[in-house]
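ok so i was messing around last nite and threw this chain in just to see what happens. nothing serious, just curious
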Amino acid sequence: MLALTRRIGEEVVIGDPRKPMGVIRVVEIHGDKVRLSFDFPRDVKINRRELAEQKARQLHEEPTSPTSPTSKDAQ
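result:
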């Protein structure tokens, strides 16, 4: 794990610095809350940890393949 200290307006570059995959910027700091901006391609999924865990649980609970009626069920 990498831990960094950044100030408002400072950035963290992800990937090759010449052509980064994305950039994270510190936008605001209010008390114990930090507001970040993420500049990544649309196909890169970015989630807060609690939402990522919730989505993982939902995917785990969903059936792996949808059930389809058999010809016997359709009669």
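not much to say yet. Residues 11-62 form one domain.
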